[in-house]
């Protein structure tokens, strides 16, 4: 199934589709093992910096080979694409989906750049995600607010023809200093006025009950990155403390295994959300 159809199906079923970032072979295998064990689909995401780190061709081939090796239904997605050029390179490299993140541009500029990527992606039959509103990036202020407004979301999706929209409803990238409080009412109102698949960025650290409420009120794609990096590095640092092992293949499996446990927990949350819908 194509990613667009899967997201539409899951939205209808009020199920979340988890999108995990990967950075190298170990993090890729960690997330794929979780999807394999639970027989769940998964979106594999690459940011510009991960693409630069691994090389575009290597990253794509690694992702595709991993999906085949683990027998997982999954898709490759560009996360937070910052330019039309990068989106174009990823389309050429065979991505199933690209995000163009014009969320820091003025509204009309965001429409313009998103429309351009939508036009290009059409020729590849690829899926496009955009972002509207302020979801703090790593290092940006959590205090500033810029939630997505339903009327703007409607106008934006109509003007761009974008398939999926990342919304600002109270999440932020990275760890939270205080417990996030998602605006579920606002989310439900956005979902009512736009047919686009709704995406939750900043999935790390969002309490389980809030993730479930978000999914049952319109969110489908849930992005997870920081918790994956964190558990991998925390475990690896413990493994390496006072360890003289020089066979690097022996020190990674524990950290990879911890990613698998983490992602299995999140995948279970994605499925169990239909009983907490807000009824208006
Ligand atoms: P976290 O790093 O907070 O999980 O956010 C992930 C994300 O939104 C990737 O686009
Ligand atoms: Zn994000």
From TrEMBL:
Do you know which InterPro entries this protein is assigned to?
A: Aldolase_TIM, Class_II_FBP_aldolase, FBA_II
Highest taxon listed in the record's lineage: Bacteria
Among CDD domains, the record links this protein to: TBP_aldolase_IIB
Q: What is this protein called?
A: Class II fructose-bisphosphate aldolase
Q: What species is given as this protein's source?
A: Fulvivirga kasyanovii
Organism placement in taxonomy: Bacteria, Pseudomonadati, Bacteroidota, Cytophagia, Cytophagales
């Amino acid at each position: 199934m194509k990613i667009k159809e899967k997201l539409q199906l899951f939205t209808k079923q009020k199920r979340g589709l988890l999108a995990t970032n990967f950075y190298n072979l170990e993090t890729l295998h960690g997330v794929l093992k979780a999807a394999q064990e639970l027989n769940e689909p998964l979106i594999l995401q690459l940011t510009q910096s991960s693409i630069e780190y691994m090389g575009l061709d290597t990253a794509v081939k690694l992702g595709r080979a991993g999906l085949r090796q683990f027998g997982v239904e999954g898709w490759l997605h560009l996360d937070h694409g910052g330019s039309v050029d990068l989106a174009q390179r990823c389309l050429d490299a065979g991505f199933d989906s690209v995000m163009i993140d014009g969320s820091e541009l003025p509204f009309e500029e965001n429409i313009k750049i998103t429309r351009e990527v939508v036009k290009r992606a059409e020729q590849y039959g690829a899926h496009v995600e955009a972002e509207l509103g302020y979801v703090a990036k790593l290092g940006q202020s959590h205090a500033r607010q810029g939630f997505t407004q339903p009327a703007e979301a409607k106008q934006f999706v109509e003007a761009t023809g974008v398939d999926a929209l990342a919304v600002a409803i109270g999440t932020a990238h990275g760890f939270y200093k205080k417990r996030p409080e998602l605006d579920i009412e606002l989310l439900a109102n956005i979902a009512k006025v736009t047919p686009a698949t709704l995406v939750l960025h900043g999935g790390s650290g969002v309490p389980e009950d809030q993730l479930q409420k978000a999914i049952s009120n319109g969110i489908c794609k849930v992005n997870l990155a920081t918790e994956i990096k964190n558990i991998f590095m925390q475990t690896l640092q413990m493994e390496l403390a006072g360890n003289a092992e020089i066979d690097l293949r022996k020190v990674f499996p524990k950290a990879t295994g911890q990613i698998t446990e983490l992602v299995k927990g999140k995948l279970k949350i994605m499925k169990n959300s239909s009983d907490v819908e807000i009824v208006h």
